[in-house]
Amino acid sequence: MTLHLVRISVNVPALAGFAVARRLGDDDFGYALHAALTARFGDAAPRPFRFLPDHETGPHLLGYVQDRAAFDDAAALPPADAALDALFDAPRLRPMPEAWREGARYGFEVRVRPVVRFGKSVRAARTDRAGGWLAGAGEIDAHTAARERAERAGDDPDLVDRAAVYIDWLAGRLSGAATLDHADLRHFRRTRTLRNTHRSEGRRTHRVEGPDALIGGTLTIADPTAFAALLAKGIGRHAGFGYGMVLLAPPGRAG
Q: Which of 12, 146, 159, 177 has fewest C-beta within 10 Å?
């Protein structure tokens, strides 16, 4: 099944109204877009996707669609929620390559949430510590985790480079699919967003805070099949909320 790149223009005031009405507001509209895309396209919604609110061509999102027929069927229906009428313009789709070539080089850019997970015992042991913990999610900023490892080893945690940690994190998630020729941290901030958790008392939505990083550079495909699967799935555990979409371009022209 051929992967398709979709571009959808987004009416930001309408998106803001949608988020406020449903109490889905966060720092980047990631959760609101996740909810709106699911309401509009169901299981065929683009995933992963990336929202570009300040693009020179106007606010829009880019995403990958795995089942073009299902997406077209959903797009042909009138929105079930009237609020979606003003939110999205008509989608524009383009097919990605049907086959990738081992050794092919591409420029890339990807927005990621570089976090690592810990088990219950470690989580309980560090509940009184600040810095990077995503409350309720069992996750911690990869840079914070690296600083703590350095401290336990008797090294100076201030010498742990954030960019190097995040690039190493990305390289690990590309492993087997592609290798990094070079990469740089193009932007970093911390953002608060909404996430769902499933506990004994049922599903809960809560706010979590964590790293928000934009990494770009050049990569080389190592395994075409694994690379295709990586594009379709996205990088990291937050691919359904505006993270993890790998944008590709000729080498030297990404971003």
A: 159
